[in-house]
Specification:
single chain; 368 residues; alpha+beta; Ribosomal Protein S5, domain 2; Alpha-Beta Plaits; 2 domains; four-stranded antiparallel sheet; 10 helices; 16 strands; 36% helix; globular; binds (3R)-3-hydroxy-3-methyl-5-(phosphonooxy)pentanoic acid
Length: 368
């Protein structure tokens, strides 16, 4: 982690005196999924993935640095958090504190306030938008700036899927091996949010938290599912097909590859030991509703992450027809529609409002 972090530090440069910044990021859902990691510490996925950014599911995060050496204050959705959740955020802040020391403008403890603007009871993962917003806000609050690719690599160190939320539109995240043998991953925007006007309808089946986190779930799969080798062998073809479907705005082709990728992932978790079955009964009914719609001429496609809720893609013209089919499935609580979202943005940025950088010493000893 250290060597990798310092490679990133070299690509972060000072722009302002440290203070506070607020960033907003959209969540994303993978159309070609990743599952499994080649490097758990650096959160390098074992397979490539390609996502669509979700405009309606956002996280807004404010980071303010002080020059004091004390514990960070972390408030998520109005609730101060501690334990592992806080440790994960503080570990991320430490990366930026490392860069700030290297650049002779060390920052100290942070106050982090993060709010998820997700549809009520959506039961959707917020780690992608959460770590993307945290990465952007932290870098700016520390008085620095960097390019989107470096920001994506930083966000990935918080949560791998967060790397894709930096760019907006349709984004891929692909692992590669460095000359020395270390694994790393790069992001690339495959198409902007304007390229294809799609709707994503989220059918909420169960809004409770997942019974198992994605990291231990992936580790169990790679260690025990007999199909894991086939998964590693087949993602490259899926990625190529998905890229082509997006370039050609071909929803039929996208449906074929996205459903194939999602169902392969669920085949992996189902065949792990002990098994992890994320679908509930209504999840399967929603998939059948999608197939029924397609066979009666309405183009749409589903995808599903490590949880029971199913996301369905369709054209704006078909939104109401698809929504009414999904709503009529027994066990579907709500259906929330969203459009394709854009990149992470800094929504406000204060430069040294308190003047602390003119007065005191920050953790690490620097003086401004
Ligand atoms: O990177 P995480 O911990 O948010 O895990 C993401 C796992 C999936 O959502 C199932 C797949 C993906 O590519 O986003």
């Amino acid at each position: 982690m250290k060597a990798h972090a310092s490679q990133l530090e070299d690509r972060i440069h000072p722009v302002d005196r440290p203070a506070a910044a607020t960033a907003r990021a959209c969540s994303n859902v993978a159309l070609v999924k990743y599952w499994g990691k080649v490097d758990e510490v650096r959160r390098v996925p074992a397979t490539g993935s390609l996502s669509i950014t979700l405009a309606g599911l956002t996280t807004e995060t404010t980071v303010a640095f002080s020059n004091r050496d004390e514990p960070d204050l972390i408030v998520l959705d109005g609730r101060p958090v501690g334990g592992r959740e806080a440790a994960r955020v503080s570990a991320f802040l430490d990366l930026i504190r490392g860069a700030s020391v290297q650049q002779d403008r060390p920052v100290g403890a942070a106050s982090v306030r993060s709010v998820n603007y997700f549809p009520t009871a959506a039961g959707l993962a917020s780690s992608a938008s959460g770590f993307a917003a945290l990465a952007a806000a932290t870098v700016r609050a520390a008085g620095m700036d960097t390019d989107p690719d470096t920001l994506a690599s930083l966000a990935r160190l918080g949560s791998a899927s967060a790397a894709r939320s930096i760019h907006g539109g349709f984004v891929e995240l692909v692992p590669f091996q460095r000359a020395g043998g270390d694994w790393d991953a790069r992001t690339a925007r495959v198409a902007t949010e304007e390229h294809w006007d799609l709707r994503v309808l989220v059918s909420v089946i169960d809004s409770r938290y997942k019974p198992i986190g994605s990291t231990p779930a992936m580790a169990r799969t790679s260690a025990t599912s007999p199909y894991y080798g086939a998964w590693l062998d087949s993602w490259g073809a899926d990625l190529t097909e998905c890229r082509e479907a997006i370039a050609g705005r071909d929803l039929e082709r996208l449906a074929s590859v996205a459903e194939h990728s999602a169902l392969k992932l669920h085949a992996l978790t189902t065949t792990s030991r002990p098994p992890m079955q994320f679908f509930r009964g209504p999840s399967l009914e929603v998939m059948h509703a999608v197939w029924d719609l397609r066979s009666s001429g309405t183009l749409c496609a589903f995808t599903a992450d490590a949880g029971p809720n199913i996301k369905v893609l369709c054209s704006p013209d078909d939104e109401e027809r698809v929504r009414s089919a999904l709503t009529s499935v027994n066990g579907v609580q709500t259906v929330q529609a969203t459009t394709v979202g854009g990149p992470v943005e800094i929504v406000s940025h204060d430069v040294d409002p308190t003047g602390v950088w003119g007065r005191g010493k920050a953790r690490g000893g620097g003086d401004e």
